[in-house]
Structures are given as structure tokens and as C-alpha cells.
Amino acid sequence: MFAKAIFKLFSFKDIELIMDRTNWKFGKTSINFLVLSVNWKNLAIPIYWIMLDNKGGNSNSD
């Protein structure tokens, strides 16, 4: 719902979407997020994020 509200506020010609996967270490804990943001006038506004499991790597050959 938040993402839909952001798109209603801005015209599509003024924004771009940014997707980023980021990983931080907090002690022995890995924090791994996938974030979708809107870039509007050089300001990145996160509109959707999900915490990913950390079972090693970005791909899986299985």
C-alpha cells in the first residue's frame, strides 16, 4: 500500500526505481535485505524491503 501511495504522489517522469541487495554484519549475525527504492530529486525513498535468508551466496545450482 505504501508503494502505491508513493506512485500516486509522483509523476513517472520524475522518478526512477532502484533495486539493491545489501548485507551487513552485526557481530556474528548477517543482515541481508533486498530493497526497492524510488529516486526522486536525488533522494532515495525505500518503498519495499524484504529480509532474505542467508544460506550462502546469490545463486543456487540446484
Topology:
Layout: H1 2-9, E1 15-26, E2 29-40, E3 43-51
Antiparallel strand pairs: 1-2, 2-3
Tags for this model:
62 residues, mainly beta
Overall pLDDT metric: 78
The string of secondary-structure elements, in order, is HEEE
Helix tally equals 1
The counted number of beta strands is 3
Please tell me about this protein's structure.
The protein has 62 residues and is mostly beta strands. It contains one helix and three strands, in the order αβββ. The protein has a three-stranded antiparallel sheet with strand order 1-2-3. The radius of gyration is 15 Å and the shape is elongated. The model has no long low-confidence stretch (mean pLDDT 78).
In summary, what is this structure?
This protein has 62 residues and is mostly beta strands.
